[in-house]
Amino acid sequence: QVQLVESGGGLVQPGGSLRLSCAASTIIFRFSKMGWFRQAPGKQREFVASISSTGTTNYAESVKGRVAISRDNTENTVALRMNSLKPEDTAVYYCNADGTATYWGQGTQVTVSS
């Protein structure tokens, strides 16, 4: 069973930065794509960013220019660096891995508030 464990969430002021990390219990190169999604209270889960096994990245328009996704195939981790955070970025952030099956982490809370 594949496990994805997120970390790095927390409370940050508007304009601040956070770095989320997702540690996988298996080699991540087996996944064609890994990414981050988020879910705010009362809203559906939405796509944030993804990175393919070859390093191709994709970002939601709402975060483009403010976030960067990266992967470390030796450490089996995927990171999401978020800058210029806004209150509307407040959500639970989930790590996602797509291969022969789809896997999700348990989520990490990000709260942007003064």
Q: State the share of residues found in helices, binned by percent.
A: under 10%
What best-fitting shape do the alpha-carbon axes yield? globular
β-strand number: 11
In whole angstroms, the N-to-C terminal distance is 40 Å
Instruction: Describe the largest sheet.
Output: 7 strands, mixed
Instruction: Find the structural class using helix and strand composition.
Output: mainly beta
- Quote the average pLDDT: 95
Series of secondary-structure elements, N-terminal to C-terminal: EEEEEEEEEEE
Radius of gyration: 13 Å
Report what the structure shows.
By secondary structure, the protein is mainly β. It is built from no helices and eleven strands. The strands form two sheets. Strands 2, 4, 5, 6, 9, 10 and 11 form a seven-stranded mixed beta sheet that branches. It is globular and about 40 Å long. The termini are far apart.
Keywords:
114 residues, mainly beta, seven-stranded mixed sheet, 11 strands
In short:
This protein is mainly beta and 114 residues long. The protein has strands at 4-7, 10-12, 18-24, 33-39, 46-52, 57-59, 67-72, 77-82, 91-98, 102-104, 108-112.
Helix and strand layout, with pairings?
Elements (H helix, E strand, L loop, with lengths): L3 E4 L2 E3 L5 E7 L8 E7 L6 E7 L4 E3 L7 E6 L4 E6 L8 E8 L3 E3 L3 E5 L2
Parallel strand pairs: 2-11
Antiparallel strand pairs: 1-3, 3-8, 4-5, 4-9, 5-6, 7-8, 9-10, 9-11
